[in-house]
Design goal:
heterodimer; A: mainly alpha; Serine Threonine Protein Phosphatase 5, Tetratricopeptide repeat; two-stranded antiparallel ribbon; two-stranded antiparallel sheet; 19 helices; 43% helix; 5% strand; B: mainly beta; 22-stranded antiparallel barrel; 11 helices; disordered N terminus
């Protein structure tokens, strides 16, 4: 007996009880290996879909749900989005007060920065790796084309916020822009800021490459319009050209972008700007119910009906001067309610406040569901880009008037084609951008690219107790976002904008 | 040791020799005269002996050639008695000489404390029994030097965070490894009924922990549960009945009368000092702020006028409250009154223990019903344990220790420090002018609903019935009482644990042990958010999460122990162990409640999310230990363990850990025999290398993509924290330890002094990445750091006079922590309020330097980073006549090291007075030095958040040019510059805590025996009696990192207890 036991024990000590060789190999079930992203083109398509998804997932804090949220931030900083109630929610008010983009520790401004670079990093994996992936060539072109478009667009969004505006008169624009990330660097390595000129050069290259690769690609699937096709890339090119004061490209690209899209009907205009199937939408996010982003959502901050504290107690309102100037025959006037009390028919959430000039342009799916599709590019904007570019180009006033007429006539059947010229015409077009694109994230960059002042003077529903700032002069250092402290901490090569 | 002793006795019974010539009887008692059962009585120089019965009596036959009896009992010192001609020998065994004779639990076995080379602290059942704690970890605080214990919060069942010998890790766990009955335990400490615990042992140094290899670097806490004693059948009953209250005062805050003028001033100053351009004059601004113009006045910003004066007459243009103003609903401003209650605690246990020669048993049942001092926070625990050991053959022994418990609990929502549902955050920060219930805003009377009941003022009545919205800072549309009352946050947990061992003794000196340990835990978490108010409104939402953890540990251990030629003893252990842990779970989350009253998912309409997961964690190990003992005088030990860990890549996952130690019992040397006052003196020293990997994620080295479907199209996206790092490996801890244990004056004074130097290298950290890389952090091995310290433990019977004893136990520890090396690729990095770089420490604050307040305009000033001229630069002449360049823009504030959260020293003292059966003891814990970043206070010092509560300290703010103060001008437009994170929020972290006071009375034996009991004790106990810190309300014991948060405050618990042994 004892011998038997002893021999057993000797065996024990020599490793009979040792585990199998692969005992220590474990793998997660809620993630996949990074290498799998480039294992096949169908996996790479999934990796592309992932980028579409993070355009609207939630980030670090409420009110941070991707591009839609940043659209709201940009509009807070203009004159046309109003916090109407002195005792209402102060949620996100620091944007309205021009504090947040200058507070290096603010969670929201960190989110803005990291959001775009997250897109770029994911895009770079596909751009630099897809060529070696086995699979159909058409798929590879589509994937690479979309990834390039993402990278170009994201750098464009960044450089507009962090760099001093592009000025065609001072080419090359050597002022510092943002880190230009074209490949994913080793862990811990950060890049310095490239010049604004370099960034724009790369943006244009990426977009042009994308156009070549995406030629012939047709978007499909349940979230088709969240993909980049030639139209979307042309639309971005038009925006970039506008920012670079390249009027000809802006106009031609805008025309190319809207090809195949029709303006929505007046009835559709009042359905809440939350449906990607709208015929006018060129590009947007499709959000389904179980991708709910709760209080993070775009609609939790810009809708009139979602039951968030912000919407309930600080409903979004429009600059009353802007609204009062909209003709009653213009459908866009009905996106806001000029009444108070019972006459105000805004579908507010339970207990929600009603105010004059209240927004009802945007509707969440219900007071309990902040879900909704987020608009990023509509044909209407393309008409306005074309009009603005032609008007600023000089000698193209008729083309400008016509482009403007094409869109405004749709909104206001009583509209008569403008006969204005020069600055008056430009002003009319810019005024239309404000009323047409309210809440869609264009006002801050429109002011910045045109080197205009932000001026809330004389707009009665802006409350002096809340706004923090009334005017920001053109060219002021406050037009530049500060880089978040977390970037400076980990990447000392980034030089902060003037404080 | 005790096991083998009892076993030895068993053997002796069989081989009882029949050559006795006379019989000696007697009685063994403790120093108080209580009979001691189970004491071994052995004929010196033989293996023959007996044990005492329940009355402490024995009877033994003694051959003529034996003239000495040896009495030994558990941890008490063996005592030799000459036989002579006496027929009766009575012995009193004194417990005060125990300290170096104890048997202590060590890795994979037990050891006589005398032979230990490592640093080990022990807490015994008796120490735990008299404290009304529901989590056994709470008994560690103040009991062992070198161990820091965070305050456990008042959430029922919660246990404290514990750090042994400094702070070893950044992102890997810093918690010591928890080992229950010899096996690492994956469950929480609240699963263990404190009454089942025989000893809690803290292994501090590397030699003591090295056999736990890759998991032992932060120390090991070993819990050993009770077992039955042979020859003694015992029933023990413990009944505790207590009540609890909030144990920490609230911060001092302004009341409604003080509040309005302060907010008025914040508004007025905002108008005078605008962000851009020129402001309006003081005169105009005063009028605007008072509400005397067409513009919004302060009442418009605060919404509520709690006074019996007009809205524009609350604060005058002089900034003073209207002298006639009286509160109209002053009786309804206390948000805490209905949230708090007097908690109750019932803790009952009964256990049965006993045994015979071939078996022993222990069985216990426990019931805990703990209602916290906050509504909807309670815990019920039902627990049971069965521990049986059998020895059917002399060479074969086996045992099974099974325990199970079921816990159900409602939890207060203190998870998010600043989340609206957190009742502590809400009640601390809501302005003092907002009532809990809706009031008629003119008369102040309660508004009543159709059935005549008051209703909650949710803060978003929107003017209905004249009740306005609260402003954002006053938590519009949120209501902590309503949400706490209507929401649900609960869990049900079932835990089963089993430990089985089989010992086979062979070839005389060998023992083979096979261990199987299975721990299984399931937890079912429910959460419901109501339809009326809060995040769930108006639809209502509910989630259900089910998770389980199964951990199987198998080990095979071979022990060899031999005494060679009387004076040498060698013990060798070799073994193999594997951990196989599996975690899985699923969660469903829906919204859209259909019918009221049912919070299960079927009653909701829309799926928000459904998820599930399965994770595995595995470790495989080979281990060995050798100890050598020469004449109980010199000791040498060494151990080695090789671990493979699934968290690391195949090429990096194996690590080797080892230790060596030596000890010298100097008091056993001849030359010490003349030094009479020294009764014990031991010198010991160890060195070892131990690792740590737990806490960094199961797949730490892998590069991953997460699932991210786009609508219904399959999608994946790069993880922002998981990047492939095949080199990622163990953190290693090299620790040197030297200590002296001593006993003086017949061990009336005992103690130890120890020094340790613990060097941690390759510290695992999720290193923050440039945001522009698209990553947030990447797991890397980074810094090298040391923790050094001195630990002093002293226990003395200061007075022993006519039955009166005053015992004093003191321990003091220092810890110095410093980072000595950073990798070249990551020379420094910053997270939160800390920066890690060579020369800094793990808790070194890296904050913008607050400079003070400009007496000219009350602006907050910071030491300027960029000193070039700008609109925010100011030049201030300092005390020495020099000029300091400062800035009013916090964004230009200079980051500098600002001291550390680690105290200079910490410790405890606990006096015990006893007289006959009465004993009064106390435990005081304290720390000196270090700094706390009081984030809770910072939030109360806002320079103008309309609707938010304000600290009373704001009264010392800057008010007019020339004011010298450290509190900037109130200014609602300057929240970023005046209130941002800076060195301004640091405060001295010293504290003194009256942790526990206990009065017990042991009934006289005569009385007790009348009820057939052997022992009965009553006690009254108070926990967390008072806490003294540098600021009222500040709990700087809350987090080792020094940053305060809005957590459930500790509970002050008063308990009556009874223990009865039958």
């Amino acid at each position: 007996m004892k011998k038997y036991i002893l021999s057993t024990l000797v065996l024990v000590s020599t490793g009979l009880f040792s585990c199998k060789k692969n005992f220590l190999d474990t793998y997660p079930t809620t993630s996949v290996a990074a290498a799998d992203a480039l294992a096949s083109t169908s996996n790479a398509i999934a990796a592309l879909n992932g980028i579409h998804r993070v355009m609207y997932t939630q980030y670090d804090a409420q009110g941070q749900a991707g591009e839609g949220s940043i659209n709201v931030f940009r509009d807070y900083m203009g004159e046309d989005l109003v916090f109407p109630l002195a005792n209402g929610s102060t949620g996100q008010m620091t944007w309205y007060q021009w504090n947040n983009h200058r507070n290096v520790n603010a969670s929201d401004m960190r989110f803005v920065y990291r959001f775009y670079y997250r897109l770029i990093s994911n895009a770079n994996v596909l751009i630099n790796g897809i060529d070696a992936v086995p699979g159909p060539d058409a798929d590879k072109k589509m994937i690479k084309g979309q990834a390039l478009a993402y990278r170009g667009w994201a750098h464009f969004q960044l450089v507009q916020l962090y760099g001093i505006r592009y000025d065609k008169a001072t080419v090359p624009n050597n002022q510092p822009g943002v880190p230009l990330v074209l490949e994913n660097l080793p862990i811990g390595v950060g890049l310095p800021r490239a010049s604004v000129e370099e960034v724009y050069t790369q943006i244009n290259k990426d977009l042009n490459d994308a156009l070549v690769l995406l030629a012939g690609y047709t978007r499909t699937g349940t979230a088709a319009k969240s993909n980049f096709n030639v139209n979307v890339v042309q639309g971005i090119k038009a925006r970039v050209a506008l920012a670079q004061q390249d009027w000809e490209t802006a106009a031609t690209s805008a025309i190319a972008a809207r090809a195949g899209f029709t303006l929505m009907t007046n009835a559709e205009y009042l359905t809440g700007f939350n449906n990607i199937n709208n015929q006018e939408w060129i590009w947007g996010t499709r959000q389904i119910d179980d991708h709910n982003t709760f209080f993070y959502s775009y609609f939790a901050y810009i809708s009139c009906n979602f039951n968030s504290t912000v919407i309930r107690t600080q409903p979004r309102a429009i600059n009353q001067n802007l609204w009062l100037a909209v003709p009653v025959t213009d459908i866009r006037k009905s996106c806001f309610d000029g009444n108070i009390g019972a006459a105000n028919t805004t579908p507010v959430p339970p207990g929600g406040a009603k105010v004059r000039y209240q927004n009802k342009k945007f509707l969440a799916k219900s007071s309990a569901l902040s879900v909704g599709d987020v608009p990023y590019m509509r044909a209407g904007e393309m008409f306005l880009i074309e009009a603005e570019a032609r008007a600023r180009q000089g000698g193209q006033d008729l083309a400008a008037q016509t482009a403007l007429f094409n869109v405004v006539k749709n909104r206001n059947p009583a509209y008569i084609q403008s006969i204005s010229t020069g600055q008056t015409l430009i002003d009319e077009i810019m005024w239309n951008r404000r009323i047409e694109l309210w809440g869609e994230g264009f006002r801050f960059t429109d002011l910045k690219r045109t080197n205009a002042a932000m001026d809330r003077t004389g707009i009665p529903n802006h409350l002096p107790a809340l706004i923090g700032v009334t005017t920001i002069p053109a060219g002021d250092k406050q037009w530049q976002f500060l880089f978040p402290q977390d970037e400076l901490n980990a990447n000392p090569s980034v030089i902060q904008n003037p404080l | 040791m005790r096991k083998s002793l009892l076993f030895l006795l068993g053997v002796m019974f069989f081989s009882l020799q029949a050559f006795a010539q006379k019989t000696i009887t007697g009685k063994v008692t403790d120093d108080k005269g209580n009979p001691l059962a189970n004491v071994s009585v052995v004929l010196k120089g033989t293996k023959t002996g007996t044990i005492t019965d329940d009355n402490g009596s024995y009877s033994i036959r003694v051959p003529a050639n034996v003239n000495t009896l040896v009495f030994s009992f558990q941890d008490k010192a063996p005592q030799e008695m000459a036989i002579g001609s006496a027929a009766e020998i009575n012995v009193s065994l004194s417990p005060s000489e125990k300290s170096l004779e104890e048997v202590v639990v060590v890795a994979y076995g037990t050891a006589k404390k005398e032979t230990l080379t490592g640093s080990v602290g022990t807490i015994k059942a008796a120490d735990i029994a008299k404290r009304p704690i529901t989590n056994v970890m709470n008994s560690i605080e103040g009991a062992i030097s070198g161990v820091v214990v965070g305050s456990s919060n008042g959430q029922p069942g919660s246990g404290p965070e514990i750090r042994v010998r400094g702070f070893g890790s950044f992102n890997a766990t810093s918690q010591p490894l928890l080992v229950v009955d010899g096996v690492p335990y994956a469950g929480g400490t609240s699963n263990i009924n404190p009454d089942d615990v025989e000893t809690t042992t803290v292994l501090k140094d590397a030699a003591a922990t090295a056999l736990f290899g890759s998991r032992g670097a932060n120390g090991v806490i070993m819990i050993t549960t009770k077992k039955g004693q042979k020859g003694k059948n015992n029933i023990s009953v413990r009944v505790l009945q207590g009540s609890s209250k909030r144990g920490l005062a609230e911060y001092d805050r302004l009341d409604a009368y003080q509040y309005y003028p302060i907010m008025w001033e914040a508004y007025r100053n905002q108008l005078v000092f605008p962000a851009t351009g020129t402001g309006i004059s003081y005169d105009s601004a005063n009028r605007v702020a008072s509400g005397l113009t067409t513009r919004t006045g302060i009442q418009g910003l605060l919404s509520y006028n709690p006074f019996n004066v007009a809205n524009n007459a609350i604060v005058g243009v002089d900034g003073k409250l209207n002298s006639g103003a009286q509160l109209i609903y002053g009786n309804d401003l206390d948000w805490l009154s209905e949230l708090m209650r007097t908690g109750t605690r019932k803790d009952y246990s009964i256990n049965f223990g006993g045994g015979s020669d071939k078996m022993d048993y222990y069985m216990s049942l426990g019931y805990l019903d703990d209602k916290g001092f906050t509504i909807r926070s309670d815990l019920k625990r039902y627990s049971g344990r069965l521990n049986i050991n059998l020895q059917p053959k002399t060479w074969f022994k086996t045992g099974l220790n099974i325990s199970g418990n079921f816990t159900q609990s409602n939890q207060a929502s203190d998870g998010g420090s600043t989340s609206f549902v957190n009742p502590f955050f809400y009640s601390r920060n809501v302005g003092p002018i907002y009532p809990v219930y809706a009031h008629n805003m003119t008369t102040g009377e309660f508004l009543l609903d159709g059935t005549g009941n008051k209703f909650w003022d949710l803060g978003n009545m929107g003017g209905a019935m004249g009740v306005p919205n609260r402003p954002s800072g006053g938590f519009a549309g949120r209501h902590t009482l309503a949400e706490t009352s209507l929401n649900e946050l609960n869990f049900r947990r079932t835990v089963l644990s089993a430990r089985n061992y089989v010992d086979i003794i062979f070839l005389k000196d060998f023992k083979f042990t096979n261990n199987i340990a299975v721990d299984y835990q399931t937890q079912y978490d429910g959460s419901y958010e109501n339809t009326l108010v809060g995040d769930g409104a108006p639809a209502g939402r509910s989630s259900r999460e089910y998770g389980s953890v199964t951990s199987v540990i198998l080990s095979q251990i071979l022990n060899y122990g031999k005494k060679i030629r009387g004076s040498h003893r060698v013990d060798v252990l070799v073994g193999h162990e594997s951990l196989n842990q599996r975690e899985d779970g699923q969660r469903g989350f829906k919204q859209g409640q259909s019918l009221t009253g049912n919070t299960e998912l079927n009653n909701f309409t829309t799926i928000n999310s459904t998820t599930s997961y399965l994770d595995r964690y595995k470790i495989e190990s080979y281990l060995s230990r050798v100890t050598y003992d020469f004449r109980n005088k010199y000791f040498v030990s060494g151990s080695i363990r090789r671990d493979g860990n699934s968290r690391f890549a195949p090429g990096s996952r194996w690590g080797t850990f080892w230790s060596a130690g030596g000890g010298w019992n100097a008091d056993k040397e001849n030359f010490m025999q003349s030094v009479k006052f020294v009764s014990q003196l031991k010198l010991r020293s160890t060195y070892g290398v131990v690792g740590i990997a737990d806490g960094i994620g199961y797949y730490a080295y892998q590069g991953l993509y997460s699932f991210a479907n786009n609508a219904n199209e399959p999608g994946i996206v790069q993880s922002q924290t998981a990047f492939l790092n095949r080199e990622l490996t163990w953190e290693t801890n090299k620790q040197f330890d030297i200590g002296i244990d001593f006993g003086l004056f017949k061990n009336r004074v005992t103690g130890s002094i120890e020094y340790y130097d613990r060097r941690s290298a390759d510290l695992l950290f999720a290193v923050p990445q440039p945001l522009s890389s698209g990553a947030l952090s990447a797991n890397q091995n980074t810094a090298t750091m040391y923790n050094k310290g001195i630990e002093l433990q002293l226990n003395a019977d200061v007075i022993r006079w006519k039955g009166i004893t005053w015992n004093m136990n003191v321990n003091l520890s220092t810890v110095k922590n410093q980072i000595t090396k950073m990798p070249e690729t990551v020379p420094e990095f910053i997270t939160g309020t800390k920066k890690y770089a060579v020369g800094s420490s793990i808790f070194q604050y890296w904050l913008r330097s607050f400079y003070g307040v400009d007496p000219a305009d009350g602006a907050a000033l910071y030491v300027a980073n960029n000193t070039a001229a700008s609109t925010t630069r100011r030049l201030i002449t300092n005390k020495d006549g020099g000029v300091d360049t400062v800035t009013t823009s916090i964004a230009n504030g200079k980051f500098e090291f600002q001291g550390t959260a680690i105290p200079d020293f910490y410790g405890s003292f606990s006096p015990t007075f006893s007289y006959k059966g009465i004993s009064l003891s106390a435990l005081f814990t304290f720390q000196m030095g270090g700094k706390t970043y009081d984030a809770n206070w910072a939030a109360l010092m806002s320079s103008g958040t309309y609707g938010g509560a304000v600290s009373s300290e704001i009264l010392n703010r800057w008010q007019q040019p020339g004011d010298i103060t450290n509190i900037p001008r109130l200014d609602a437009g300057k929240l970023v510059d005046h209130n941002g994170a800076s060195s301004r929020w640091l405060i001295d972290a010293s504290y003194l805590n009256i942790r526990a006071i206990n009065l017990s009375y042991e009934l006289p034996k005569m009385l007790v025996s009348k009820i057939k009991a052997t022992n009965a004790q009553f006690f009254v106990s108070a926990e967390n009696l008072a806490f003294f810190s540098k600021r009222k309300g500040l709990n700087n014991q809350q987090a080792f990192s020094g940053v305060t948060s809005n957590a459930y405050p500790p509970a002050k618990v008063l308990t009556l207890g009874l223990t009865l042994n039958l």
